[in-house]
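Rotation project, supervised by the postdoc (A.L.). Task for the rotation student: set up a whole-complex structure prediction and record inputs and outputs verbatim in this book. Inputs entered:
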Amino acid sequence: MSSLKRKDISVGMVLLQLRTVIALVLLTIVFTILLQSGKGINFLHPLNLVTIAKHVAITGILAIGMTFVIITGGIDLSVGSIVGLTGMIAGGLIHEGLVLNLFGITIYFHVLVIMLICLVLGVLLGAVNGLMITKLNVAPFIGTLGIMYIARGFANIRSGGATFPNLQGKPELGNTGFPILGAGRILGIPLSIWIMIVLLLVTLYISRKTPLGRHIYAIGGNKRAAELSGVQVGRTTTLVYMFSGFCAAMVGLIISSQLVASHPATGESYEMNAIAAAVLGGTSLSGGIGTVTGTIVGAFVIGVLSDGLVMLGVSEFWQNVIKGFVIIAAVVFDQMQQKMNARSTEQKDKKVQKEKTA
Amino acid sequence: MENNVILKAEGIRKVYPGTTALKGVDFNVYQGKVNVLVGENGAGKSTLMKILSGVETPTSGKITHNGSVFTHFTPKTASEQGIGIIYQELNLFPNMNVAENIFLGKELESRPGWIDHKEQESRAADLMKKLEQDIDPRTLVQNLKVGQQQIVEIAKALSEEVSILIMDEPTSALSKTEVDVLFQIIDELKENGVTIIYISHRLEELIQIGDYITVLRDGALITEKPMEEVNLQWIVSSMVGGDSSKIFHSGNRSIGKTVLSVKDLFLQGSVEEPLLNNVSLELKKGEVLGIYGLLGAGRSELLESIMGLHEDISGEIVCDDEVLGEPDIRDRIQKGIALVPEDRQREGLVQSMSVSHNLTLAGLWRIVQKKVHIGSKKETESVDNMFQGMSIKAAGPEVLITSLSGGNQQKVVFGKSLLTNPKVLLLDEPTRGIDVGAKGEIFNIMNDLAEKGLGILLVTSEIKEIMAICDRVIVLSKGKVTGHFEKNEISEEALVNASAIGHMTTSQRTKREKA
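Outputs recorded:
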């Protein structure tokens, strides 16, 4: 029955909206040509693409959680440290088990139980973030900065700064199988990529087709109006931080499983990569705007850029410089799009006004 | 008489996108007098004052001051001309102290680049003494009561050499004694040759203090007279306009059983006087009950309390025979209460969302399938229905809400409330800042809803609106019910008198008692 027009977008707007995808395609083409002509390497070889995707999955999973946080108008600086802490907890439980001095016994858990413990820990830390922000009115930047230090501190305390090596587990203790998460493949594709894909699909559904998703966008767009429309702002915001904590714990498990070892410094500055991916994907730091698909494209831009540069032999120092420029460019384009949006809105408004008077 | 006109605005027009705020207004300001400007909300008073103080640029027109002609002022030229303004909204920096606020932007320097705090503070102290206020210039503004903050605003304006001082509702936040002090100050300023432009909704106050009165209505000049020639009755009828008010009461409403009853609602808030002081009311199905009162009378707080926005509240609210429990907005929406808030931009809309997402935001729970899934078809259907039912003018439901005109945005806020399928509709100044045509549409919608059996509580400060649509009116003043009128008893004078009861200064009260 809908006689109403639902889309009205110009070509320029489409190009601007797809800018991250265009940037990704251009980057891929440039690297393919440079690597083929310079070193005779095929950048587009499936194995290479899978490797890149595997790297992207780490940033991507964190960035999916981060996207919702940023859409509510917040930020989560603690995810990198949660990656480190959950990795250390998993490593410790496999390597040393749970030592109960009181009873003089040591408990070794099944790997799945250990993973569950780590995921719950991530969710709990996220809940602490969320409750601080919603109940105690702590600014998200500060609250999650605090948890960032606390989690990193405990990651080091857990082992006294040392690495837990050899996390294969022992058959006699019944705790083998941890490396599968990092090394396992389905249809030739590593599990971490599958996890990213599943998370992407689930969050895509939540953000587009559920009241929860709609509420998250509303909170970031106008908290007061959302509240007056019956949105449970506190609960929803806390849930979003819990999900971010869950994603971080997942990444912590994936990394220590891939390395078959856990190190307390793992995940340092990962939160920045996650934020960068979200921003590159069009998420607005002022809240209310952003998509998880955009974020994943943003994560791929970062991944292709850093892997391509590595393969070209560009030094790590220069990689950082280039990454910085790309992020700034993304934000500048974002401003341009907002201006264009405003302008086309004005024009439409004039058109409507004219129709009204006619 | 013309010789005494120090400032003259002629043919001032101001056009905003979608609405014309001023339609060629002439305004004379007489030297050394209190020039009163009155009009209902949206009549254009504040816009005119912003133009005189240089904050807004008029679309056309000219301003003559002391013989020199200007097309417009900038804040700088206005202050060079000796025009100072005290705004309706407080424009202070809560994180700075009183002296810093007073001298902000015109800091006193001991040597270039160095603020002379000592001098600033002693001058601020002098100003406070002059204003008879015991406020330490080093107090942070955030630690002052609202009334005291208003005093700081006044001090800020007086700290400069002003020849014309504009006061836009300076008393709305003041207690009675503070108002008396302010009036003394105004008298002193007059003696020193300062010209005052004074805006207020409190009409008795105007008669007490004013020398000349200018009435604006719908952005146009209605009349200008010396104060001694007019009385309260005259002011009200020229503000409201005798014949222009259309009646939106169809007469087809059938008033049913009580749908909302409020008993002894009490809300302390953070000020000394309670925001709501044992307010009780009953609203019936198919009835439009008007709530009239001045700024700060507790009208918005009443609606917010019914909506469940305030925690520290006592009293009983019953909706459709069900007692509403703990304040919980979501719960109250689902039990049939919906609010169209006063501030559309701040409280009504999510600016980053599309028209359709704004429309369905509060009623998502009604179109959800299996508790989590928003059915596209169901959503499209409700959105399209609302689009047609409310005749929302937009390029389509997927455009950003900010691309709509004020009136159409307001229809979206209305639509959002209606999609929750309410039994009681709470409307807080639903026609503020929208043009006359859209106002008419909004009123027709209200009448239709009442005919369909909704109970409507309408808060408005425009008497015209009350007369146009309400079945009954309750008047609030300083948190108390001070009047209750059936349809045939509603008159401008009765409403204005009832709304002023809580605000009268002691002198006014004794005067009235004598009369």
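Student's summary: The first strand of chain B starts at residue 5 and ends at 16.
Supervisor addendum: Chain B has three domains: 2-240, 258-336+422-509, 353-421.
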